[in-house]
């Protein structure tokens, strides 16, 4: 009987031992935005933590330095009355100089520790993070961070803004055939932020940039909808209602061939001097095709395959040669680009009955 009691008590101890380090949710800080810059061999981190106030949701910014993000969090926790949990971080803002130096070690640390969700979005700031995070507490938002709203599809996100997550950057660092673009931001004069384009990231380093208009086409290649983007022409303005991408590829004599057909459905919003629908169609096609050519030229110049074209040739090229995709095959790519525009209607007009 005594043996059974001892065995039962041991089982209880085993079952209860997993909860010894649990902490009450009221004693945990849950930051939603993390800013990181480099200072010599160290990182400088900024944590924006939502803080309930009498008239709504405010925030506070905590700043600390260290050689790793975990060390920084430990330093912060020592001086706080609550522990800090990083799993609720939704957006990570990186300093531009840090991105140009390289993000491989930082991203590998995120993936290894699992303290930060791999789904967290990333952005690169061209403005000082000191100024940016000191400005944040003056802006309130339902989630406690105005930065988050800029990347939420049900808030301030627009189709010309890249949406890039930690796991996508990690994948690109270890891929021979796929790179990524991360949104570039700067402090605005009349608004909190300005989106200044996207940074081209190759092997974990920023090697170039593309414009917001070129980012729209990057998103189209990545499977994101371009619905809602307004294009202004000389005699009209149109709104994109949808987009599709069709790709045909072949590999002959060590040369990759690619035919890309992008189709857009648009709606006419405004006109001037009464242009014909056919003229508007040709102007939009020419505008988007020139933009697409410019995007391709930049990617090949930087030897950075942010459009993921190399994915279509992975079965055609042996692995020992695939590692040279960016420098050899991508530069020799025979690319046929085509853009087709379909005008759905002339706007939300109703023809009056006679």
Structure description:
The protein is 29% helix and 33% strand. By secondary structure, the protein is α/β, with parallel strands linked by helices. It is globular, with a radius of gyration of 25 Å. Strands 4-3-2-6-7-8-9-10 form an eight-stranded mixed beta sheet. It has a four-stranded mixed beta sheet with strand order 11-12-13-14, covered by helices on one side. The longest helix is centred in the C-terminal third of the chain and has 25 residues, at 277-301. It contains eleven helices and 14 strands.
Summary of the model, kept short:
This protein has 354 residues and is α/β, with parallel strands linked by helices. Helices cover 29% and strands 33% of the residues.
Number of helices: 11
Strand coverage percent? 25-35%
As a percent range, the share of helical residues equals: 25-40%
Order of helices and strands: HEEEEHEEHHEHHHEEEHEEEHHHE
Question: Strand pairing plus helix content: what structural class?
Answer: alpha/beta
Number of strands: 14
């Amino acid at each position: 009987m005594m043996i059974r009691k001892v065995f039962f008590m041991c089982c209880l101890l085993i079952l209860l031992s997993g909860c010894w380090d649990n902490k009450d949710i009221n004693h945990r800080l849950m930051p939603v935005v993390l800013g990181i810059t480099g200072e010599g061999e160290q990182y400088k981190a900024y944590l924006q933590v939502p803080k309930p106030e009498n008239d709504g949701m405010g925030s506070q910014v905590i700043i600390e330095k260290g050689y790793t993000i975990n060390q920084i969090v430990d330093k912060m926790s020592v001086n706080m009355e609550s522990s800090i949990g990083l799993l609720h971080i939704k957006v990570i803002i990186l300093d531009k100089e840090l991105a140009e130096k390289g993000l491989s070690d930082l991203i590998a640390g995120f993936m290894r520790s699992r303290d930060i969700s791999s789904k967290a979005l990333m952005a690169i700031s061209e403005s000082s993070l000191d100024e940016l995070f000191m400005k944040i507490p003056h802006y309130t938002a339902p989630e406690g961070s105005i930065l988050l709203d800029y990347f939420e599809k049900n808030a301030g996100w627009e189709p010309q803004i890249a949406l890039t997550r930690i796991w996508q950057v990690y994948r690109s660092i270890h891929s021979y055939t796929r790179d990524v673009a991360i949104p570039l931001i700067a402090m605005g004069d009349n608004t909190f932020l300005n989106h200044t384009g996207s940074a081209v990231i190759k092997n974990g380093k920023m090697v170039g940039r593309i414009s917001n208009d070129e980012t729209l086409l990057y998103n189209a290649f990545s499977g994101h909808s371009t619905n809602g983007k307004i294009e202004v022409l000389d005699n009209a303005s149109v709104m994109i209602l949808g987009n599709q991408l069709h790709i045909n590829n072949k590999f002959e004599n060590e040369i990759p061939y690619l035919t890309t057909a992008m189709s857009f459905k648009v709606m006419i919003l405004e006109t001037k001097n009464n242009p014909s629908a056919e003229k508007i169609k040709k102007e939009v096609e020419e505008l988007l095709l020139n933009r697409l050519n410019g995007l391709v030229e930049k990617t090949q110049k930087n030897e950075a395959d942010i459009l993921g074209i190399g994915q279509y040739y992975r079965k055609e090229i042996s692995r020992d040669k695939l590692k040279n995709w960016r420098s050899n095959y991508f530069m020799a790519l025979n690319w046929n680009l085509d853009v087709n525009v379909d005008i759905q209607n002339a706007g939300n007009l109703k023809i009056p009955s006679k």
